[in-house]
Design goal:
The chain is an all-alpha fold. The protein has 7 helices and no strands. Helices cover 73% and strands 0% of the residues. This is Co-chaperone protein HscB homolog.
Length: 173
């Protein structure tokens, strides 16, 4: 079975900027209509297809709702697989990673919830800036290298944001 484009599943045009609220509404509609339980009395083949459609829908939703995953997916459907190991060629980014990690460690050591909140706010602003930059260049083949660099940075900040949330949870306990 050939997987349809993630955007096509939601009747969207492939674009980086999408309405996440509308995506969530459409996902819930589709999930209800193709949920495997609705096919409990169907043939085994129809049940398997329902399961596959539901799994494809879930995968597509997870990819499209995440800016870094959506960006990577867009580059992939454009015929460019992103090599993640290329960060070594981006020394400015490496320095930024080191500084942010050290700052997060300091916040963890000091258990500074206010500092964590300020750090999280700065990360969000940096993510928005990367997303704006990616949105303006991903379609340009001459800017492909820059788009890939931005995706790698988005992925790093996304992972760091996840770690900040975990730190917040630990400090709240």
């Amino acid at each position: 079975m050939v997987k349809p484009c993630h955007f096509a599943l939601f009747d969207l045009q492939p674009d980086f900027r999408i309405d996440l609220s509308a995506l969530a509404v459409r996902y819930r509609e589709l999930a209800r209509s193709m949920h495997p339980d609705r096919f409990a009395n169907a043939t085994a083949a129809e049940q398997r297809q329902a399961l596959e459609r539901s799994a494809s829908l879930n995968e597509a939703y997870q990819v499209l709702r995440s800016a870094p995953q959506r960006a990577r997916y867009l580059l992939g459907i454009g015929g460019h697989e992103l090599a993640l190991e290329v960060t070594v060629q981006d020394p400015e980014f490496l320095m930024q990673q080191i500084q942010l990690r050290e700052e997060l460690e300091d916040l963890q050591d000091s258990a500074d919830l206010g500092g964590v909140a300020a750090f999280k706010k700065r990360l969000k602003a940096a993510q928005e800036q990367l997303e704006d930059s990616f949105a303006s260049c991903w379609r340009e083949s001459a800017q492909r290298e820059q788009a890939e660099r931005l995706v790698r940075r988005m992925q790093f900040l996304d992972k760091l944001t996840h770690e900040v949330r975990q730190l917040e949870e630990r400090l709240d306990d």
